[in-house]
Amino acid sequence: MEEKLQFIDPHVHMSSRTTDDYEAMAQAGVVAVIEPSFWMGQPRTQVGSFQDYFSSLVGWEPFRASQFGIKHYCTIGLNSKEANNEALAEQVMDLLPLYLHKENVVAVGEIGYDDQTPAEDKYFRQQLELAKEFEMLVQVHTPHRDKKAGTIKSMEVCLEHGLDPSMVVIDHNNEETVQEVLDRGFIAAFTIYPKTKMGNERMVEVVKRFGSTNIIVDSSADWGVSDPLAVPKTASLMIRSGVAKEDVVKTCYQNALDVFGKSGKMKAEHWNGSKGVDQRQLFNDNSVLRGQEPKVDNDKIV
Hints:
Blueprint: E1 7-9, H1 19-28, E2 30-36, H2 47-58, H3 60-66, E3 71-76, H4 86-100, E4 105-112, H5 118-134, E5 137-141, H6 147-160, E6 168-171, H7 178-183, E7 187-191, H8 200-210, E8 215-218, H9 230-240, H10 245-260
Parallel strand pairs: 1-2, 2-3, 3-4, 4-5, 5-6, 6-7, 7-8
């Protein structure tokens, strides 16, 4: 029997997705996800909105993922768009230390630049210092406009603040930025979208050209047109395109585990050897069920 590959999606906004997505991801082999805190599509107006959102990332969402056999981790940070509301940003900065020590928080993120404003720069730098203080990894959002300049600036600011490049994941890369990121010793992540930005056919060519060292594939699936199965679909396309299985495993599973595992909070034993799904469980007296029979795996062997 052909071995079924395991996948990690290290950048997916599951709070925006449905239980059908969790089921499909588990069926496709996704064993773990990392959910970066991010912009919700419209600006938040009160610090309490951030507090409730961060609390869901360390509470309800890990439970929801567990009900479909997926281990959930997250990164916590002030996103670049909302850094421009400085009065609110100051209050959010005060919140961050309360969450960074939580057991499923594996990095400070996603932080960085959007329009590359002075306010974005100010809070990016403050959060890099926070990552140093807590000895944490950093997940960097690079701007979609003026991509190359924004990516280079992000890395230079990280170095200016004394961060080890191997502890920094630079995300949303493309063919224009990857060489510079790898040459400087950072981790290069790629978000795969079905219609825009980086597609999976382009990703296959990136792996063929640049190899699999320090390269990570993720979906960045969110509330917009996106695909929570982008990682397994890209892996499948790589195999059909002649990419070595070893390189597929590294870019779609192992590299993410190696990097975010440096947090000490993310381990393969969390999903290998798991007892499986038990949908009889509750979180604050709530379940994911809506009247159907709960699924229960007894002594699951992965």
